[in-house]
Amino acid sequence: MGKFDELQKAVFEGNVEKVKIIAESLLATSEDPLSIINDGLIAGMNIVGTKFKEGEMFVPEVMMSASAMNAGVDVVRPAVKGEDIKSAGVIVIGTVKGDLHDIGKNLVCMILRSAGFEVIDLGVDISPEQFIDAINKYNPKIVGMSALLTTTMPAMKETIDTITEKGLRERVKVIIGGAPVSREFAEEIGADGYGDDAIAARDLCIKLAQ
Ligand code: B1M
Q: 68 CB less than 6 Å from ligand 1?
C-alpha cells in the first residue's frame, strides 16, 4: 500500500476528521507538504472525479469529498514554505462566469502566494466586467482564469476579448487553467500561457512576471 492511499481513501469517503488526522501524521513524518497535496489530496479528488463521471457518486458526496480535501489543505498550508521571492507581483485570479468550481483555483492561489505573489482572489462566477474592474483597481502583472466546465471555457475568450477592447491587453499577461483547458486552447484564445497544475501555474507566473 502506498503511503498516500489512506489519505486518498479518506478524501474519497468525505471523512473530514480522518483527512485531518492523516494529513497531520504525514506532516509529522516530514513528508513534503506539496506531495501530501498532490499525491494524497488531489489524487483522492481525482478518484472522486472518475466515480462522479461514471455515475457512481453524486453531488452531495462530491461536496463532502471537497470539504474533506479543503480541510486537508488547511492542515498542510502552513507547512508550504514561501520561496523567498520578495513581492513577485500582483496576480488577479478568478473562476470564470457561470462556473462555481473553486478547489483547483484555491490551490493555485495558495501555491502562488507561497512563491511570493500577492494574489487577489476574486472568487467564482466572475464576469469579464468584474475582471476589468479588478485590473483597473489592482493593476496586476498577471490575470489568471480557471474553468472546469467545457460550457464555461468560452467565457475565457470573452474575458480576453473584453480586456483587449478596453485597451488593457498590453498591461497584463493572461494565464488560464482547469481540467478541460489545454495549451492549444490557450493559444487559440490568445492567452499568454496555460498551467496544467498549480505548480506549473507557479512556474509560468514566475517566468511571465520577470
Ligand atoms: Co463538477 N464537474 N459540476 N462539481 N466537478 C466536473 C468538472 C466534471 C468534469 C465531472 C464529470 O462529469 N466527470 C463535469 C464537467 C463536464 C464538462 O464540462 N465536460 C462537472 C459537472 C458536469 C458539474 C455540474 C454541471 C454538475 C451538475 O450540477 N449537474 C455542476 C456545475 C456547477 C457550476 O459550476 N455551475 C458541478 C458542480 C460541482 C460541485 C459543486 C458538486 C463540486 C465543486 C465544489 C467546488 O469547487 N467548491 C464539483 C466537483 C468537485 C467536480 C470534480 C469532481 C472535481 C473538481 C476538482 O475540484 N478537482 C470534477 C471532476 C474532475 O475534474 N475530475 C467535476 C480537484 C482540483 C484540485 O483539480 O480543479 O482540475 P482542478 O485544478 C487543478 C488544475 O486543473 C489546475 O491546477 C489545479 C491544481 O492542480 N488549475 C489551474 C485549475 N485552475 C487553474 C488556473 C490556472 C492554472 C492552473 O491559472 C489561472
A: no
**Tens of each residue's pLDDT in the chain, 210 residues:** 688 999 999 999 999 999 999 999 999 998 899 899 989 998 898 898 889 888 898 878 988 998 898 899 889 988 887 654 456 799 999 999 999 999 999 888 887 886 778 899 999 999 999 999 999 999 999 999 999 999 999 999 999 999 999 999 999 999 999 999 999 999 999 999 999 988 889 889 999 998
CB of 52 shorter than 6 A to ligand 1: yes
Q: Is 178 in the pocket of ligand 1 (CB under 6 A)?
A: yes
**How far does residue 111's CA lie from ligand 1's centre (Å)?**
18
How far is Cα of residue 52 from the mean position of the Cα atoms in its chain? 20
Determine whether the shortest distance from the Cβ of 208 to ligand 1 is under 6 A: no
Query: What are φ and ψ of residue 3, in 5° steps?
Result: -70, -15
| Domains of the chain as residue ranges with CATH | 5-84 (1.10.1240.10), 90-209 (3.40.50.280)
* pTM for the full predicted model: 0.83
Three-class SS of residue 10? helix
